[in-house]
Amino acid sequence: MTIAQLDAVETLRTDREGLWQALMELASLGATPKGGVNRQALTELDRQARDLFIRWCRDEGLSIRVDAIGNIFARRPGRDPNSPVVMTGSHIDTQPTGGKFDGCYGVLAGLEVIRTLNRHGVQTEAPVEVVVWTNEEGCRFPPCMMGSGVFTGQLSLDEMLAQVDDDGVRVDEALGAIGYRGDDRVDHGAIKAFFEAHIEQGPILEDTGNTVGVVIGALGQKWFDLRLTGQEAHAGPTPMDLRRDAMLGAAEITQAVNRIANAHQPHGRGTVGSLQLHPGSRNVIPGEVRMTIDLRHLDPGTLARMTDELRRVVDETSRRHGLDAELTPTADFAPERFADGCVEAVRHAAERLGCSHLEVVSGAGHDAIFLGRVAPAGMIFVPCENGISHNESENATPEDLHDGCNVLLHAMLEQAVVVSSEEE
Question: Which among 4, 125, 260, 420 counts the fewest CB atoms within 10 Å?
Answer without folding.
Answer: 4
